[in-house]
Amino acid sequence: MIGTDVVSPKGDSLGDIKEVVIDPRTGRVAYAVVSFGGFLTIGEKLFAIPFSAFEYSVENSNYVLDISKERLEAAPGFNPDAWPSMADEKWNRDVYKYYQRAPYWE
Amino acid sequence: MIGTDVVSPKGDSLGDIKEVVIDPRTGRVAYAVVSFGGFLTIGEKLFAIPFSAFEYSVENSNYVLDISKERLEAAPGFNPDAWPSMADEKWNRDVYKYYQRAPYWE
């Protein structure tokens, strides 16, 4: 899963998955951590995006992410050497709310 | 999740999780790949075990695996440099059957 390409619904390359964050209890991927490479103007930032925001394409072996460039550019990213505290419920709520996804833990 | 200890229901150390295998479509952990270290007499072998066979202990931050030593010793393991073909449906069926777990893909 790590290294899998992420594309827009039109098929444009957005970036790739650098890490996955798994809920240890349920064994479900909570977040895919994406680097948007050259797509965004935000150098090395990473973005933890709810897994439910992705759709897997079996045909192309990649993930389709239907989020506008504007929304991604304004998203709460973080530096690779300063990950957010993912045990913090507020952080989780804020991220899921930003991407308009139902919390996976409810 | 990788590196998390695996213990018996009595709390005896069995080994730890070396890898996780995720179904890319659903984002669910299909298998935890476990090394049983000194517990089994089978040197460096790895074992892909259905995630549903584990129970996560929030208290101890480890996984409880309720499978007898005899059953683990007879389990279909593999060498770290020769992973099975996990795309093969028969392999998946055989493993889930061996551990008496309902297939995650149905």
Task: Tell me about this structure.
Two copies of one chain form a homodimer. By secondary structure, chain A is an alpha+beta fold. In chain A, 14% of the residues lie in helices and 33% in strands. Chain A is built from two helices and six strands. Chain A has helices spanning 69-73, 89-98, and strands at 5-7, 13-23, 28-35, 46-50, 54-57, 62-65. In chain A, strands 4-3-2-1-6-5 form a six-stranded mixed β-sheet, with no helix packed on it. In chain A, a hairpin with a 4-residue loop joins strand 2 (13-23) and strand 3. The longest helix of chain A has 10 residues, at 89-98. The relative contact order of chain A is 0.20. The interface between A and B is medium-sized, with 16 and 16 residues.
Structural class of chain A: alpha+beta
Strand order of the largest sheet of chain A: 4-3-2-1-6-5
Radius of gyration of chain A: 13 Å
Mean pLDDT of chain A: 91
Quick rundown:
2 copies of one chain form a homodimer. The first copy, chain A, is α+β, with helices and mostly antiparallel strands and 106 residues long.
List keywords for this structure.
homodimer; 106 residues; alpha+beta; 6-stranded mixed beta sheet; 2 helices; 6 strands
Write the SSE topology.
2 copies of one chain form a homodimer.
Chain A: E1 5-7, E2 13-23, E3 28-35, E4 46-50, E5 54-57, E6 62-65, H1 69-73, H2 89-98
